[in-house]
């Protein structure tokens, strides 16, 4: 018992001696050395309280050291002490600091605390002093998006991407809000399809669309006029892109036509999209087409943004009586400016329900071999005028061992207002 007591007393004295020694060492360190130690505690050891104490000691030596003050504010933010962080940041604001990192740290804290208006106020101050700041510009776009100010967010992103088209994070955000940007949009699309052997007549399809942004997401009404097999037909479609959260949004679609053989009588579809970490996105959903019988197709896709490139892989799986038919497509887009300006390349197999060839799914022809490759180009003029053109080549086995070369050309124009 006596030896145990002596051991405990010795341990206490040793700890006290080491603490006194460390304190004495801290007292001889410069503010830069203390700042370096604080960063080590925060980043290497994740010991934020120890980092706070070291930062405070550094500020006792250099009260006007802005970088340390900003770092102290960030530490309080990471510790979920927003009131303490505000005290530090407001002190810097009262000194009229024009430090870029100060504005970024302060605005980020308010953004994470869902104080979007306050964050925008701070960001506008920072951008007044640093108009070319990529970090401040991107954060402003995020705050505007979180405030449902999609048009302003898109405008901010277009400015950022004009200067830095390889900004992956800005590119991802621009595409994620693309369907929410315009209050209203009208569109006109013409599609021409030529067949060497399978059909004697070319196909012509004209589409007229109107899109309206609502508080929950965009809604699109579309009318399609077709001339196929020498006959005319009409289809009506309604689509919506409701936003569920910052991470998830959906596609919902339905359509009706009484033009038998030209369009499905009914069509429905739904997909859930997720914006994932590391600039990935994913989708899972279904499409249903009602001809004389129902055709059910299940789809999944994964996409990845890298600088000003977008890569996407998609599959459609169609269960049949004897097997499951597969359709695959890979897409690469090279963006030149914003979300509406890009060159695209697509290669794939099979027929998808998004194509104007969907009525070829009748009679199980979708089980035969189809290869496709195509190019597309989208261009925006003054953000409100959107032009598109695409061309796709198909090599289709429309009967066993009988193939056809087919061409699909589409041109379109959309006007936002």
Automatic annotation (TrEMBL):
Keywords: Coiled coil, Signal. Residues 184-355 form the YaiO beta-barrel domain. Residues 1-24 form the signal peptide. It comes from the Bacteria. NCBIfam families: OMP_YaiO_dom. The gene is yaiO. This is YaiO family outer membrane beta-barrel protein. Residues 136-163 form a coiled coil. The lineage of its organism: Bacteria, Pseudomonadati, Bacteroidota, Sphingobacteriia, Sphingobacteriales. It comes from Sphingobacterium zhuxiongii.
